[in-house]
């Protein structure tokens, strides 16, 4: 294969301009990416996933009222000094680990919500002529090895474009990008087709795009056409579909469990899962859940009477 299609992935794009209307009023002034899952905001979880995968440059596609995101990753001297003087080294470590290395954070704005494809297009000048990753912070993947790291490892073998996928119930295909692999089940499944949010009866499969992508820079030429697709938006999926047959394009099933934190239910589920897996509070969370459940089912009151 053309070695140009196997160049290392150094940059990652984080589309963070969305308004978070599904979480109103919590997101009235706070960016939805700052909502916490266990002890850290969504954006930090995906930042850590990207860092683990060897990403060196973090490109945020932001919008109005998103300043808190860059503040979160900045050096906070007063906070660090206070923690240091109080000997709170654990907390200090946590704060430090959310700091962006100097010169690694780049921001640009998407002025209007024209779709994910448009958001990624906004990163063109920052990405330049090299392959890059895209991570959607709405989706968290709980895994031993981060999903993007798993992808980067497979990319080292296959190059080209690579997307992480998982099966969804057929009734839900209209919520996702859906991939046609022609029934292939290998580690790197050649992608034959891609369609954004098809109705269940039209979906070519039930394999959904989960929001982790490795893309070659040729995608930008297709995004620049600004063609609208599903929902009247400029779709990343449509631009990706145009790369099929022009460059290697594979789909990968990842090891781990995904959580759609863009929905309230997924957000709550993720919080429970991450808290239960936390060595510090997991046991207590389990106990509390048991107690809540008992109260709800009325067992507690029956016990109290007997
Ligand atoms: C976006 C993508 C879709 C993908 C989904 C994953 O949709 O357009 O292809 O399956 O993320 O969460 P959105 O959820 O922004 O509507």
What would you say this structure looks like, in words?
This protein has 306 residues and is an alpha/beta fold. The protein has twelve helices and 14 strands. The protein is 34% helix and 21% strand. Helix 10 (264-276) packs across helix 11 (282-297). The mean pLDDT is 94. 1-O-phosphono-alpha-D-glucopyranose (G1P) is lined by residues 116, 136, 138-139, 176-177, 196, 208-211, 235-237, 262.
List the helices and strands and how they pair.
Elements: E1 11-15, E2 36-37, E3 40-41, H1 42-52, E4 57-62, H2 67-72, H3 77-85, H4 89-97, E5 105-109, H5 116-121, H6 124-127, E6 132-135, E7 139-142, H7 147-158, E8 161-167, E9 177-180, E10 189-190, E11 193-196, E12 207-215, H8 219-223, H9 236-241, E13 249-253, E14 257-260, H10 264-276, H11 282-297, H12 299-305
Parallel strand pairs: 1-4, 1-6, 4-5, 8-13
Antiparallel strand pairs: 2-3, 6-12, 7-14, 8-12, 9-11, 9-12, 10-13
The protein binds 1-O-phosphono-alpha-D-glucopyranose (G1P).
Q: Would you report the number of β strands?
A: 14
**Ligands bound to this protein structure:** 1-O-phosphono-alpha-D-glucopyranose
Q: Judging by the overall fold, what is the CATH architecture of the largest domain? A: Alpha-Beta Complex
If you consult CATH, what is the topology of the largest domain? Spore Coat Polysaccharide Biosynthesis Protein SpsA, Chain A
**Shape designation:** globular
CATH class of the largest domain: Alpha Beta
Number of helices: 12
Feature tags:
306 residues, alpha/beta, Spore Coat Polysaccharide Biosynthesis Protein SpsA, Chain A, ten-stranded mixed β-sheet, two-stranded antiparallel ribbon, binds 1-O-phosphono-alpha-D-glucopyranose
């Amino acid at each position: 294969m053309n070695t140009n299609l196997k160049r290392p992935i150094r940059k990652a794009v984080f589309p963070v301009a969305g308004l978070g209307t599904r979480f109103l009023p919590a997101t009235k002034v706070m960016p939805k990416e700052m909502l916490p899952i266990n002890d850290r905001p969504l954006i930090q979880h995906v930042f850590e996933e990207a860092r683990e995968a060897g990403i060196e440059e973090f490109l945020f596609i932001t919008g109005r009222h998103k300043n808190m995101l860059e503040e979160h990753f900045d050096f906070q001297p007063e906070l660090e000094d206070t923690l240091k003087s109080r000997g709170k080294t654990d907390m200090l470590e946590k704060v430090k680990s959310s700091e962006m290395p100097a010169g690694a954070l780049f921001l640009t704005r998407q002025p209007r919500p024209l779709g994910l494809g448009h958001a990624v297009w906004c990163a063109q000048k920052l990405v330049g002529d090299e392959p890059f990753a895209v991570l959607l912070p709405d989706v968290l993947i709980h895994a031993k090895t981060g999903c993007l790291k798993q992808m980067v490892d497979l990319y080292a073998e296959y190059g080209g474009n690579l997307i992480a996928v998982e099966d969804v119930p057929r009734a839900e295909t209209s919520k996702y990008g859906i991939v046609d692999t022609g029934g292939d089940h290998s580690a790197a499944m050649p992608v034959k087709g891609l369609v954004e949010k098809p109705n269940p009866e039209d979906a070519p499969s039930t394999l959904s795009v989960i929001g982790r992508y490795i893309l070659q820079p040729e995608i930008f030429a297709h995004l620049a056409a600004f063609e609208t697709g599903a929902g009247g938006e400029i779709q990343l999926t449509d631009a990706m579909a145009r790369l099929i047959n022009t460059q290697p394009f594979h789909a990968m099933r990842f090891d781990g469990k995904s959580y759609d934190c863009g929905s309230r239910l997924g957000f709550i589920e993720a919080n429970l899962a991450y808290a239960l897996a936390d060595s510090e509070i997991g046991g207590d969370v389990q106990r509390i859940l048991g107690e809540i459940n008992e109260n709800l089912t009325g067992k507690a009151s029956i016990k109290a009477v007997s």
